[in-house]
Amino acid sequence: MLISAHTDPATRPGPWNQDPGWGRPVGQPLNALFAQMERMVLSMQDPDQGVKMGGQRLLITVIPHAVTGNDIVEWLIQKYCISEEEALHLGLLLLRHGYLYPLRAPCSLVLQLDGTLYRFQTPYFWTSTLWLATELDYAIYLAKKNMQKQGALANHEKEHYDQLHRKIGHTWDLVVMQAREQLRAAKQRKKGDRLVIACQEQTYWLVNRPPPGVPSVLEQGPERGACIVTRGQMTKNMDFYKWEIEYCRKALGRIRVKSSVCLEAYLKFSSQHGPHDPITSGCLPSNPWITDDDTYWAMNTSSVAVPTKLRVERWGFSFRELLEDPVGRAHFMDFLRKEFSAENLSFWEACEELRHGGQAQVPALADSVYQQFLAPGAARWVNIDSQTMELTLEGLCRPHRYVLDDAQMHIYMLMKKDSYPRFLKSDVYKALQAEAVIPPETKRRVFPFVWRPRHSSPRPALLPASASASASGDTAAAAHGPGGGDGEA
After folding, report:
1. Backbone region of residue 110 per phi and psi (left: phi > 0; alpha: psi in -120 to 50; beta: other values)
2. What pLDDT band is residue 122 in, cutting at 50, 70 and 90?
3. How far, CA to CA in Å, does 480 sit from each of 452, 471, 484?
4. Strands 54-58 and 61-68: what pairing?
5. CATH topology for 307-435?
6. Radius of gyration (Cα) for the chain, nearest Å?
7. Please, what is the angle between helix 135-149 and helix 155-167, to 10°?
8. Per residue in 434-469, pLDDT tens?
9. Which of 59, 311, 414, 485 has the largest count of CB atoms under 10 Å?
């Protein structure tokens, strides 16, 4: 279904009505709206049937893969057989949701019907795939902009800048350092790349931190007053009543949980995770944050031979706990090898490497994962349904770091519902619980009133040098006199 471009809410047919202030369908879920826009943007970037893109000169700088406002509107008219007014409104929606960004005047998200240059936003910055912007990132952006323009920020940006400076003042040195480092890295780029990145960043913050008076497209729903006004303008035809009946039916079938059930779930969670909380239950054999004993770090490293009993118990809390622990994932891999299904976990790990790897290696990694796990006759072929395979193959035509998310989720749910319960019931997991180590509590010294200067606990990254550090510390403590014992009985 095409996103409607009617500008008059009263004349629009069907149950969905436009918000007159912004143009987003009232009541339509955001995920469905983003999915429609992203399908449209992908078709616009098709090299054969998409919008004509090429190198465009902006003053004396050549910008690659740029399009003009005229080309965007003409393509929408020819593709969807709509009027020029509707095509302009549809292009404006894409621009205000951050799927396009202007190169000449990025401070205003307006689609011009002339030779104004625009570029398509990379999928990494799409609204549906990007996490919410943090205050720290916004503070770095404002600090960098303040350094570039020597304090000439907009009024609302100055207010945000002062508020963030008061709110996260304890980390402001980090903000300034990051801003200076980004400016230094930008000076080493070409002029065209600097211009593109600056416009891309400014458009991103216009979408995530809009100026005062501009509605945010990231809100989870329309304003209550706007919704009431729009309903008054709604034409009460057959489609309206069908939509009203369906809405009420979904509301009646919505799952609701009693407060007693919620409280019982919270109590169960607290009792289950209570022994694993170092603050409430303490650390064994000793607390490394307030003592010089680093045995706790050594017994909980990612490459320990025998894990502790608490660590093995956490693997039974959830499948995510098992995968996030390298030791648990290694034992789960051994179990899957015995069941001849280790390729599922290997495929999940390969998708994680693709997701968090370098941007330059994304095409090569995506092709390697496809050839190894998804291609016909692959050496370690994984079982994926046909619908997920079709979506994955379409995405591999233009690979990005999230192209295998659907296939990875399918394999993840397969392991969670099938392999993980059998692992918890297997003899392998029971043997791990039986062989797990229970650290003994470190004995207190006989004379606790004897004072000894405390030293900072070593971090896990400094474990290899802990032995030499503790030896030198004992030697120095012994040199202070008879009161500088080791403190352990």
Report:
1. beta
2. confident
3. 10, 15, 6
4. antiparallel
5. Regulator of G-protein Signalling 4; domain 2 (1.10.167)
6. 29
7. 130
8. 988 888 765 544 444 444 444 444 444 444 444 444
9. 311
Q: What percent of the chain lies above the pLDDT cut of 70?
A: 77
Q: Are strands 25-26 and 17-18 parallel, antiparallel or unpaired?
A: antiparallel
| pLDDT score recorded for residue 450 | 45
Secondary-structure class of domain 135-208 per CATH: mainly alpha
Average pLDDT over residues 294-305: 84
Token pair of 268, please? Answer: 């169960």
Cα–Cα distance between 105 and 55 in angstroms, integer? 18
8 A C-beta contact, residue 374 and residue 407: yes
Cβ atoms 428, 331 nearer than 8 A: yes
Check whether 25 has a pLDDT greater than 50: no
117 forms beta bridges with 68
pLDDT of residue 130: 57
